[in-house]
Amino acid sequence: MERKANLPPPPGSSSQIRPIAGEANLTSSSSSSSSLSPPDFLRHVHAVFKRHRPLGMMQSNVTRASRVLVSQTEPSRSTASASSISRNPFSKTASQIGTVVRATRLPNVASDQRKDDAAEVVTTPQGDSSLTPPSITGTITTTHGENMSPFGSPKGDSELLVDQKKSSFSASSCHLASPHALADDHLKKDRLASASNAHMTFQSSSYADANTRMTTDTRMDEISFYMGSLAFTEGESYLNTQAATNDQDPMQQLHGNVEVSASSAKFGGSTMLEKRMEQCHNQHYVEPTTRSSVMGSSCVTTTSVHSGPTFQCTRAPLAGQTAFPQQMSSSTIENSSDVLDSAPPEGRGSVMKEADGHQNHQPGLHLGGSVKEIGPSGDANDLQSQALPANNPSSNMDLGPSQSSKVEKAPRKKKYDPDVFFKVNGKLYQKLGKIGSGGSSEVHKVISSDCTIYALKKIKLKGRDYSTAYGFCQEIEYLNKLKGKSNIIQLVDYEVTDKTLLQEVVNGSTTIKDGRIKSDEYIYMVLEYGEIDLAHMLSQKWKEMNKSGWKLDENWLRFYWQQMLEAVNTIHGERIVHSDLKPANFLLVRGSLKLIDFGIAKAILSDTTNIQRDAQVGTLNYMSPEAFMCNEHDANGNTIKCGRPSDIWSLGCILYQMVYGKTPFAEYKTFWTKFKVITDRNHEIVCEPVSNPWLIDLMRRCLAWDRNQRWRIPQLLQHPFLVPPIPQELPPLHDHPSKLLMHQLEAYWDDPEVSRLRSELHEVVAKIDQGQRDRSMHVETNVS
Ligand SMILES: Nc1ncnc2c1ncn2[C@@H]1O[C@H](COP(=O)(O)OP(=O)(O)OP(=O)(O)O)[C@@H](O)[C@H]1O
């Protein structure tokens, strides 16, 4: 993004994670923010206009393993099989899904072949991206002493977001609510700003940066800091569109502002709201409105110069809720110009909808929350019922009786700056930075109008043939199938912009055999956002270990290994083989690993049938022998197929990497040397001794050359490395620790090294026993 440099810096440096404030901090930050006097506040605003924010660190520096796409060896075969079955990737039943066979993903091998060694954990990561933010709980005390209970949210960052918003909200409510009860400084602020006719609409959210997360103790001065970038950056489109509202009906503008005030006033009292409503209706004047907005990496800010200071804040909807009634800031934006739709994103997808997804707004939801809250009568429903018909953006303006007499204007064509926003199904997502890219896609961190952070995967279709593009859509199918599975990244929304492809997908067949997509078409996928992937975590871990000389942390390993197994078990249970398991495809989301990237996943036709690939794909360092030889024939003339065991092999490679810091075939640098050694059944994988011999056993179970010898996930979950055997007989507690140790060592009876240690220990224990006997005899003698 060309405008990166103009954004303010993230809340912490790229290499630091700011500590998350606890409850006390939240409270105090709320109040501190609210106590910032207007001159201070404005000074901060001015000051930050001069500051710059490097966003470059949003993009990962860690080199990653990349998938290799090898040209289809037997395309006709797979095509044939595909043609005989339903190929609708959006079909819902397991049997239908099982019949889907994907077309060759990328026809051009050379152009898509990527570096494959990059994921070695010793690569230098972006140093600061490995920390997992703790989720925040606690209550926030508003300026009115209300305790706002924390929101538990299952969404990516929403816990943090919500808390931050509440924190900001408390600051905002102090301006609007119960003006009579306001502290002097608040009154001064209000007057001062009113005198200058400065209406400031403030919308704030916090969310994680790619590398650091904004803590909940963000103060008003920090928030104003972020506001600084608004005049220079992405907010331009807002600025323009918001400013364009000057030609709107003045009453609409007034009502828009009144509504904001009112919504905020809800939290503390309505006196000021009523006064303002009255003022608006009686005076029939309007100030020229100038607005600008920015969403920096940690804050969304909207300012508008209008009448009276108003701070407002949104709260992100939680899963299961439709929208927050307090979603006023986005509503305000929507009021005047381009809309950040406040409708909850869950469960929407364009592919099954009409192709005109862009116009498929849900106007009732733009201001639904606010309208409910602020009917002049005070009845939450009276304005809701006045919602204008769909696709009429001005419906959001329908805020009071005075409007009904106005002449309706033609709906304004909504514009947005594509450099700043992505639009998916009519919903805008502001770009916050690129967080990754793969062979066929780029992934951006984005923020929605409800201040939720998402990852937006954008797959470029231009130049692809239709069958390849159709294949891309399968990722959507799998993610839909895996909806609700806690260890799989969740798909929130998606859109296929190419109408022909869309039609193909809806029809469930690729009728267009030839021809490429010529125009700029994309597949957009809005995904739950992951803070860091396992590749980064590993490199961070190894850096720490190298620095401190620590040995492998077995419990750390167990913790994540088990989660990886469970995630893969989930997809295998759904008859899906991932086919591209590698550390970069495990994302940490709120402390748990989740599986991503089903771009080359395959459905298993039945439990007894393996997948026959139409292309060799995967990431070389993690590719199983059979993946290299897929579609070839073995010594008995059988076709070599890939299935669940192929994923087990990849898991074995990841485990090996976690243990040794490199993949088992890392030293073989070229494709051909890798191919040769991996497909050689006599090649012995070197496993250096480690402190826990079960670990070596575990790796061997996963990396058995013969796929039939590899353990399945249920077995792996019971492997003694994860579930250490409990000694049959526990020694009495008063026994010497050496005896306890001996009992524990008995669990490892088959390890020669352990049995040597055990016999040594046995001698020690015998001596201890003898010593104890001698001592007790001595005591007895003395006593007698
Ligand atoms: N939901 C997400 N949250 C955060 N980061 C993500 C998310 N999805 C993807 N990424 C980042 O983007 C990178 C590329 O995404 P993904 O693997 O889905 O794309 P791809 O084109 O299939 O890549 P590849 O060809 O390497 O498999 C990931 O490695 C990860 O770092």
What do these coordinates show?
Helices cover 36% and strands 10% of the residues. With 784 residues, it is α+β, with helices and mostly antiparallel strands. The strands form six sheets. It has a six-stranded antiparallel sheet with strand order 6-7-8-9-11-10. The protein has a three-stranded antiparallel sheet with strand order 12-14-15. A two-stranded antiparallel sheet has the order 1-17. A hairpin with a 5-residue loop joins strand 2 and strand 3. Helix 10 runs antiparallel to helix 12. The structure holds adenosine-5'-triphosphate (ATP). The site of adenosine-5'-triphosphate has 25 residues, from strand 7, strand 8, strand 9 and strand 11.
Task: List the keywords.
about 775 residues, 6-stranded antiparallel β-sheet, 25 helices, 17 strands, elongated
Estimate what percentage of residues fall within beta strands: 5-15%
Helix/strand class: alpha+beta
Question: Ligands bound here?
Answer: adenosine-5'-triphosphate
Overall radius of gyration? 31 Å
Cα shape:
elongated
Helix content: 25-40%
Number of strands: 17
Low-confidence stretches: 1-39, 44-63, 69-405, 606-616
Query: Which strand order spans the largest sheet, edge to edge or round the barrel?
Result: 6-7-8-9-11-10
The main β sheet shows up as:
6 strands, antiparallel
Number of helices: 25
Query: What is the overall pLDDT average?
Result: 59
Q: What's the N-to-C terminus distance?
A: 91 Å
Write the layout of secondary structure elements.
Layout: H1 23-34, H2 38-49, E1 68-70, H3 75-83, H4 94-98, H5 109-112, E2 140-141, E3 147-148, H6 158-176, H7 184-195, H8 220-227, H9 235-243, H10 250-265, H11 271-283, E4 290-295, E5 300-305, H12 328-336, H13 363-366, H14 368-373, E6 421-424, E7 427-437, E8 441-448, E9 453-460, H15 466-481, E10 491-496, H16 499-507, E11 522-528, E12 532-533, H17 534-548, H18 554-573, E13 576-577, E14 586-589, E15 592-595, E16 602-603, E17 616-618, H19 625-628, H20 644-660, H21 671-678, H22 693-702, H23 713-717, H24 737-745, H25 752-783
Antiparallel strand pairs: 1-17, 2-3, 4-5, 6-7, 7-8, 8-9, 9-11, 10-11, 12-14, 13-16, 14-15
Helix pairs in contact: 1-6, 2-8, 10-11, 10-12, 18-20, 20-22, 24-25
This protein binds adenosine-5'-triphosphate (ATP).
